[in-house]
Specification:
Layout lengths: L20 H5 L22 H4 L6 E9 L11 H7 L3 E8 L4 E6 L13 H18 L4 E6 L4 E7 L2 H16 L12 H13 L5 E6 L6 H13 L1 E8 L12 E5 L4 E5 L3 H25 L3 E5 L4 H9 L13
Parallel strand pairs: 3-4, 3-6, 6-7, 7-10
Antiparallel strand pairs: 1-2, 4-5, 8-9
Helix pairs in contact: 4-5, 6-7, 7-8
Amino acid sequence: MANPAATPARAGELGTVWVDVAHLARLELAVRDLGFTMRQPHASVLSGKHGSRIRGRGLNFEALRGYQQGDDIRHLDWKASLRTGKPLVRVYTEERDLPVLLVVDQRMPMFFGSKRAMKSVLAAEFAALCAWMALQAGDRVGAVVFNDSDATLIRPLRSRARVQAVLGAIAGMNQALHAASEAQPVYGQLDHALERALQLAGHDHLVCVVSDFAGAGQRTQDLLRQLSSHNSVIAAMVFDPLFQAVPHHTGRMVVTQGQLQVELDMGDRTTREPIESFFTGRLHDVTELLKRSGVPMMPIDTQGEALAQLRHFLGRLAPRGKAPRRH
């Protein structure tokens, strides 16, 4: 497992380059008026056809059976009773909770950001917001937190201590990311994490996959479909604005992956166009894959704050006259 002390985060870098548990814990106050299972406004990404995938608490119809003395007559199914010629009642079972399982990506490709924060930071904050939303609703919370070499499994449990364990696992792997790392990206880790999620989320869970989906392929699509066949699944795709449009530099741009450094002449068409094609093409491919999997997608942009974007996707605006809380 990643060592939380591997790269101590300096105060000025918290929330932009790295996160710690205290930073993620403070996000609890930001979700007091948010929830996945509340009735979603029309503007929400979870409204309409996607909204039906998020199961809320209530009564589930189980079966029809013959009327027995003492049954509530409000549960009589009049149409079925008339059709069969004998009184039948509808039997319901109560939904107790909506276990939430977070699949959080902290691989080296996530340690990138050309704007406000690293993708790894946005993923950590978004996952923390979802964890606090679930605890606030009285639901169980668990996680699969993974990097290029490891995956930490935390079974869903309804307790503040369990949320703290999830935040600790996220912060630990997050702080182990650094530019000088010699670790090579292991793209198969995404599929491995989804396989572990299948082990933890048997049915009727809300599974939120927070990742840039680097290395996603046919196996990823198949696993997402398997997960969504018995669970509600949301894909929070973290991306950087650079993948939408390469900045219009007329001079040179220095690109590094930590050890190697390359200077590119962005004023040269033969240099610029292949880079633009690579970035925009990759984002398009991931988006299409998620569409084919049938999983609702929330694009999370490193240029904006996690809370503001979550509010946008849930269709709930900040109170008038107040900006979303910054942490």
